[in-house]
Amino acid sequence: MTQVVQLSDEAYRRLSNAKRPEESYSDAVLRLVGGKDLRDLEGLREPDEIDKFLGNLRKADRLDIPGA
Known about the structure:
This protein has helices at residues 9-18, 25-33, 47-64. With 68 residues, the protein is mainly α. It is built from 3 helices and no strands. It is 54% helix and 0% strand. The longest helix is centred in the C-terminal third of the chain and has 18 residues, at 47-64. The chain has one domain (9-64).
């Protein structure tokens, strides 16, 4: 499906400058935005695994902060 997107002149100029000769504008946007959508990760781990991981991150953060 094709969508129409309005860009300011400055945004269009920058996108045009960043676009590689063999790329479409859509390809350039996808390359520049990069990465995956975090929603793509849904279902890869169980909620209890995520909670444990977040707890470990918080614990590590506290160890990195003097006086925490």
